Amino acid sequence: MKILSFGHALPKRTVTNAELTQFLDTSDEWIQAHTGIESRHIMTGKETLSGLGAKAAKMALDRAGLKPEDIDYILCSTTRGEMTFPATACLIQARIGATCPSLDINAGCTGFLYAMDMADALLESGRVNRLLIVCAEQVSRLTDWTDRSTCVLFGDAAGAAVCERGDSLKTVRVSAEGDAKLLHAWASGGNCPFDDRIPEEQPLYMNGQEIFKFAVTRSCRDIESVMEICDLTPDAVDYFVLHQANRRILDAARTRLKQPVEKFPRNIATHGNTSSACIPVLLSEMAEDGRLQRGQTLVLSAFGAGLTTGAALLQY
Ligand code: ACO
Asked: Which part of the chain has CATH 3.40.47.10?
């Protein structure tokens, strides 16, 4: 497959670290030193996840010079959709005025890589000519806003990509190591009178230090693996576009690959971790400011709940 364009959308409300100190035992210094985050965007008021996703989708369609009817399939990556059903993909489909099959996937923060893998298979099968990927994430709804060790890390956003058949994706690798111990969020329990085992809805739990180690080892492994498959060295790659979970994770990968800081673009300072939206939002911003150019070689890599990981190498 090849990617024709990217789009993104952010909630209007920006929340700074200083604002968090008004109700949490934390500080701007701690958050910046431990994560690299200065602020994040949080959905408020009448903003909806499908509205945010539709805005990102429209930007990607406009940039590709396409209309909603040109799209044959919508894949939406979301860790918690706007509703349990319909799928957020269907809500986005209705908002943009498309008529194609639409469904959600959940591969945690690795969702964009999983969506690329599925898009590649659908396009290669010949059943689909053009496909829209939307990563729409409202992580602010999953976190416990009294838990300083998690709520400071996340933000809300949507990123989108329009794909069609082509050969710019050189390889994509995804993996899962089913394990809920280190990172999970329970689904809502319901009130079935015959089942007393249904857990109450509980917010996101994360063992930060173990996830940190997992992230560094698996990301480096995946990045090296896609470069090896394509017979490329790190010097031949223009950008390493990584999941924006923690600046220290990005620095650890960069140091291991011995690459300059400009080759590891980041928006974590202003967006925080927006789960599967991180990578398409960042690529869309890079397209906007001119850093992303046709022909460049990109390595993408992400990790997240599942535990899942993924990496891809493409010539944009
Ligand atoms: N403000 C002030 N102090 C804090 C805060 C905070 N916001 N959060 C934790 N602390 C304290 C802890 O209580 C601890 O205090 P103690 O020593 O008195 O017990 C101290 O800071 C150090 O805590 P650590 O957990 O060791 O801090 P660390 O440097 O490991 O940073 C962090 C924590 C940022 C969570 C880091 O481990 C991390 O980024 N891990 C990876 C997370 C990740 O990648 N998640 C992505 C997957 S999830 C997803 O994407 C949906």
From this structure: 2-166, 171-315
